[in-house]
From TrEMBL:
Upper taxonomic lineage: Bacteria, Pseudomonadati, Pseudomonadota, Alphaproteobacteria, Acetobacterales
Residues that hold GTP 1 according to the record: 11-18, 58-62, 121-124
Organism of derivation: Kozakia baliensis
InterPro entries: G_ENGA, GTP-bd, GTPase_Der, KH_dom-like, KH_dom-like_a/b, P-loop_NTPase, Small_GTP-bd
Name the UniProt record assigns to this protein: GTPase Der
Record text on subunit structure and interactions: Associates with the 50S ribosomal subunit.
UniProt xrefs under PROSITE patterns: G_ENGA
Length: 457
């Protein structure tokens, strides 16, 4: 994966960092709310600024707090992002003027030996622009007055970012571009989303896979509010990991911010190719876990069931059997779903997860030849003939696979569209067993043939 120049947006809470991030990446990627402290984890996106591809990182608000508190962990994450930056965009609220917190963190930034571009955001109108001049006192150079919400000054900012990136980054980027011209363009990454109920250990899992404290974690449920995308590479190639906010029952969601978080999680699930449904193994399978699994099946995504906190399970045999029985009864449409047990906190057993994800992805992409499919289909018809409908037996003729991702088959025959659900399940289960398609959604579409001797009315 090529290394892009990194631009980090930093500042105290509620100065418009996420709104500015969305403007720069060109889409509404980060959650935005009037409530301060919405952003907790670093949000990354790519942007093309004056012809230069850069990586933009949105961070949590910088606040004074004890290291072991939530706000302390958020600040540590933001400071870690600043440490990776090639350029820092330090944002203040022009309408509020320079606050003691702004002055404190500006002093800290001056000691980091990082190029800093001072942004006076929310500078709508002449009065706010004049107030932005107060930011000279921060000692970070000339403030750039703009309004991220209204798009004022964004074009100028993009040019300033491109001009201020260090020369060595430009040279490195030029070498990367030369290398890409010489080599064949790599295939896109496997898209994997981590979903589940709050406090199942999704962010701890992502941190363990990355080998760094990338996400804010802790005992508090619901820490992750936005869907956070990061890149990982295993021996088979790149994987785009997306950590999501916990999904609760609709009846329990009453805050607008949580509704936005849930919408972002569902959107990430829909965009994924493989979804890792993470459960707290000490609690077993909850009804909400099954609802999430059914959503994954409806969206046609490959799924891996991840049983986290396995090290805390006392009777593992009984727990595994109880979970398998519950899945067999309540999730028959995804029979054979792969299950991985591990501890995200210690890393025990985690080496099995990515190979299982890769295998689920291969099954999701499976194709069956038409000849092989119809030989199987004839055997299925001989074993159990199609049922009678309105006193007449359905004449099923042949099958073909229309597409993969997920495997989708079309069944042709006279009045095939009237096939009962029980017989469709018989065929789907046969497809799953014979062609080794465990756990993946299977689509069976029915196409009736028109009788040419029957006059249409």
């Amino acid at each position: 994966m090529s290394k892009l120049p990194v631009v980090v947006i930093a500042g105290r809470p509620n100065v418009g960092k996420s709104t500015l991030f969305n403007r720069l990446v060109g889409r509404r990627q980060a959650l935005v709310s009037d409530m301060p402290g919405v952003t907790r984890d670093r949000k990354e996106g790519e942007a093309k600024l004056r012809g230069r591809q850069v990586r933009i990182i949105d961070t949590a608000g910088l606040e004074e707090a004890a290291p072991d508190t939530l706000f302390g962990r958020m600040r540590a994450s933001s400071e870690s992002a600043v440490g990776q930056a090639d350029l820092v965009l330090f944002c203040i609220d022009a309408r509020a003027g320079v606050t003691p917190a702004d002055a404190h963190f500006a002093a800290w930034l001056r000691k980091q030996n990082k190029p800093v571009l001072l942004i006076a955001n929310k500078a709508e109108g002449a009065a706010a622009t004049a107030e932005a001049l107060e930011a000279y006192s921060l000692g970070l150079g000339t403030p750039l007055a703009l309004s991220a919400e209204h798009g004022e000054g964004i074009a100028h900012l993009m040019g300033e970012i491109a001009d201020r990136l260090p020369e060595e980054v430009r040279a490195s980027k030029a070498r990367v571009l030369e290398d890409e011209e010489e080599n064949e363009r790599p295939a896109g990454p496997l898209r994997m989303a981590i979903v589940g109920r709050p406090n199942a250990g999704k962010s701890t899992l992502l941190n363990r896979l990355l080998g760094e404290e990338r996400m804010i974690t802790g005992p508090e449920p619901g820490l992750t509010r936005d869907s956070i995308s990061v890149m990982l590479e295993d021996e088979h190639g790149p994987i785009q990991l997306v950590d999501t906010a916990g999904l609760r029952r609709k009846a329990r969601i009453d805050q607008p911010l949580e509704r936005m978080s849930v919408s972002a999680s569902i959107e990430a699930l829909k965009m994924a190719e493989v979804v890792v449904l993470t459960l707290d193994a000490t609690l077993g399978v909850h009804e909400q876990d099954l609802q999430i699994a059914r959503l994954i099946e409806r969206e046609g995504r490959a799924c891996v069931l991840a049983l986290n906190k396995w090290d805390a399970v006392e009777d593992r045999t009984a727990t595994r059997k109880a979970i398998s029985d519950r899945l067999e009864i309540s999730l028959a449409q995804m029979r054979g779903i792969p299950v991985v047990t591990f501890s995200a906190l210690t890393g025990a057993g985690l080496h099995k997860l990515l190979p299982t994800v890769r295998r689920a992805y291969e099954i999701w992409n499976s194709r069956v030849t038409t000849g092989e499919l119809n030989r199987w289909f004839e055997e299925m018809l001989e074993r159990h003939a199609p049922p009678l409908v309105d006193g007449k037996r359905l004449k099923l003729r042949y099958m073909t696979q229309a597409k993969s991702r997920p495997p989708t088959f079309i069944l042709f025959g006279t009045r095939a569209e009237m096939l009962p659900d029980a017989y469709k399940r018989y065929l789907v289960n046969g497809l799953r067993e014979t062609f080794h398609l465990p756990g993946t959604p299977i689509r069976l579409q029915l196409r009736g043939t028109k009788n040419p001797y029957v006059e249409s009315k």
